[in-house]
C-alpha cells in the first residue's frame, strides 16, 4: 500500500471514529440538556471544564512524548526506552492525579463556585487519575501503530456509555424510549436529573472505557516490547516533557478558558451552559483535523528519525487538505443555520448561540487550513516553539475574554476564543517553515521539497 493510500485509509477510519464519538457525545449532551434544569447543566459543564484543565498537570506532556518514543522504538527496533517511559509515565500520572484531586478538594472550601457543589466536585475529581492514565495508554497504542485502538475506547465507547446510562436514568427525556417502556407497562420517572447523578454516570463510563483500553494495550504490545529491559532516560524525558506539558496545557486552556472565565466573572449558569453547548457543537468542524493528527503524528515522528523531509512534506500537505475538506461544510452550515440548529437539537433558548457558533466555526476552519504544524514540531523535538505559540494565544484570549465577556457575554467569549486559535496557528506555521522547511498550510499541496534531510 502506498504512503498516500495508507494515510488516507488511516485518516478516513479515524474520521469515522471521531464522527461516531462526537455524534454520541452530542446526543448525550442533548439528552442531558433536556433532562436537566439549565442551572444544573451549567454546574455539570463547569465541573467538566475544570477537570479537563486539572488533568493537564497530571499528564504534563507525557502522552505526546510516549507517542514519539514508542514510534521511534518501533522504527528502530529499540523498545527499551519506550518501555521505561511507559512505566515511569503511569507512575507519575497516578500519583499526580491523586494529589491534584485531593489538593483541589482542600481548596474547595475557599472557592464560591465549588463550595455549594461539593458532591459533584468529588465525583469529577475521581476521574482525574483515570483520565491521565487513559491518555498515556492511548498514546502508547498510537505509537505502536494502533491508531484506532488508541482512540475508540475514549472517543466512541465512553460517550456511548454515557448516553445509554443517561437514557436509562431519565428515560422520559428520550420520547421513543418512553413509548417503548409504556408498551411493556413500565412507568418511567420524570425527566429530571441532577448534576451529581450526571457526574456519577460519567465516572462509571470513564472507568469502563479505561479498563477496555488497558486490555487493548496489553494485546497490542509486540513481544519485543514485553521482553525489553526498561531503560530510563529521565533527564532527557523531563527536558522534553516540560515544554510539551506547558504547551499542551496551554493549548487545552485555550479551549476551556472561556468557560472558566465566565464562571469566574459570575455569569449566569444558564449562559455558561449555552456556551458549553455551542463550543461542543463547534467541535464538529474540528473532526477532520483531529482525525488527521491522530493518524499522522506517529508518521511525523518516524520521518524525523529517518531524516525524511520529503515524506514529512507529503504527509503535512495531505493532512491540511483532508482537514480543510472536512471542516468547510460544517463552517458554512454554522454560518447559515447555526441558531435554528441549536434550538432544534437543544432547548429553543439555545438558538441565541447561533452567531457565537458561526465565529467558532470560522476559527476551526482557519485552524484546519493552516495544517498540522503543531504535531510536526512536537514530533520532531521542537516542542518549545509549540509552547511559545500556545502561550501567546492564551494571553491574548484571556485579556480579550476579561474585556469582552462582561460587556458582550457569549459573543465576547467567542471572539476571544477565535483569537486564541488564529494567533498561535500563525506562529506555528512560521516555526514549521523555519525549523523544518515544510509548508504546513493547505497551499503547500503539491510542493516539492529539495535540500538537505532533517
TrEMBL record:
UniProt xrefs under InterPro entries: Poly_Biosynth_Transport (IPR050833), Polysacc_synth (IPR002797)
A Pfam family hit: Polysacc_synt
Name of the protein in its database record: O-antigen/teichoic acid export membrane protein
Compartment(s): Cell membrane
Ranges that cross the membrane: 12-35, 41-67, 92-114, 120-140, 161-187, 199-218, 238-262, 274-294, 315-337, 357-379, 386-405, 411-429
Keyword terms of this UniProt record: Cell membrane, Membrane, Transmembrane, Transmembrane helix
Record carries keyword Manganese: no
Domain of life: Bacteria
Membrane topology value: Multi-pass membrane protein
Ubl conjugation found in the keyword field: no
Organism: Caulobacter ginsengisoli
Primary location recorded for the protein, binned into one broad class: membrane
Amino acid at each position: 500500500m502506498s504512503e498516500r493510500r495508507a494515510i488516507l485509509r488511516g485518516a478516513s477510519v479515524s474520521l469515522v471514529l471521531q464522527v461516531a464519538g462526537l455524534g454520541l457525545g452530542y446526543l448525550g449532551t442533548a439528552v442531558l440538556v433536556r433532562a436537566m434544569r439549565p442551572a444544573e447543566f451549567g454546574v455539570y459543564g463547569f465541573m467538566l471544564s475544570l477537570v479537563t484543565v486539572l488533568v493537564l498537570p497530571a499528564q504534563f506532556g507525557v502522552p505526546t512524548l510516549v507517542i514519539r518514543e514508542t514510534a521511534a522504538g518501533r522504527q528502530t527496533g529499540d523498545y527499551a526506552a519506550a518501555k521505561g517511559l511507559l512505566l515511569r509515565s503511569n507512575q507519575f500520572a497516578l500519583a499526580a492525579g491523586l494529589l491534584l484531586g485531593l489538593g483541589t478538594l482542600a481548596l474547595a472550601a475557599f472557592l464560591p463556585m465549588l463550595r455549594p457543589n461539593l458532591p459533584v466536585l468529588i465525583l469529577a475529581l475521581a476521574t482525574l487519575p483515570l483520565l491521565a492514565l487513559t491518555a498515556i495508554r492511548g498514546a502508547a497504542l498510537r505509537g505502536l501503530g494502533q491508531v484506532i485502538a488508541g482512540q475508540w475506547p475514549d472517543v466512541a465507547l465512553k460517550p456511548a456509555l454515557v448516553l445509554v446510562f443517561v437514557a436509562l436514568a431519565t428515560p422520559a427525556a428520550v420520547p421513543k424510549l418512553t413509548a417503548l417502556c409504556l408498551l411493556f407497562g413500565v412507568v418511567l420517572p420524570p425527566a429530571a436529573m441532577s448534576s451529581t447523578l450526571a457526574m456519577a454516570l460519567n465516572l462509571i463510563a470513564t472507568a469502563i472505557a479505561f479498563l477496555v483500553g488497558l486490555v487493548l494495550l496489553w494485546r497490542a504490545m509486540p513481544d519485543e516490547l514485553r521482553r525489553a529491559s526498561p531503560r530510563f532516560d529521565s533527564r532527557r524525558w523531563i527536558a522534553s516533557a516540560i515544554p510539551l506539558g506547558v504547551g499542551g496545557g496551554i493549548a487545552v486552556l485555550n479551549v476551556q478558558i472561556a468557560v472558566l472565565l465566565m464562571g469566574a466573572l459570575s455569569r449566569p449558569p444558564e449562559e455558561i451552559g449555552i456556551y458549553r453547548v455551542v463550543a461542543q457543537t463547534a467541535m464538529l468542524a474540528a473532526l477532520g483535523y483531529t482525525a488527521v493528527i491522530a493518524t499522522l503524528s506517529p508518521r511525523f515522528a518516524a520521518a524525523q528519525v529517518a531524516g525524511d523531509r520529503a515524506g514529512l512534506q507529503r504527509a503535512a500537505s495531505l493532512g491540511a487538505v483532508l482537514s480543510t475538506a472536512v471542516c468547510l461544510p460544517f463552517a458554512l452550515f454554522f454560518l447559515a443555520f447555526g441558531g435554528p440548529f441549536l434550538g432544534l437539537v437543544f432547548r429553543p433558548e439555545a438558538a441565541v448561540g447561533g452567531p457565537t457558533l458561526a465565529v467558532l466555526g470560522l476559527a476551526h476552519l482557519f485552524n484546519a487550513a493552516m495544517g498540522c504544524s503543531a504535531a510536526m514540531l512536537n514530533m520532531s523535538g521542537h516542542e518549545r516553539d509549540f509552547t511559545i505559540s500556545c502561550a501567546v494565544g492564551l494571553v491574548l484570549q484571556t485579556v480579550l475574554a476579561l474585556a469582552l465577556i462582561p460587556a458582550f457575554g457569549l459573543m465576547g467569549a467567542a471572539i476571544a476564543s477565535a483569537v486564541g486559535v488564529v494567533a498561535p496557528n500563525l506562529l506555528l506555521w512560521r516555526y514549521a517553515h523555519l525549523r523544518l522547511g515544510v509548508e504546513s498550510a493547505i497551499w503547500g499541496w503539491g510542493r516539492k521539497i529539495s535540500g538537505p534531510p532533517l
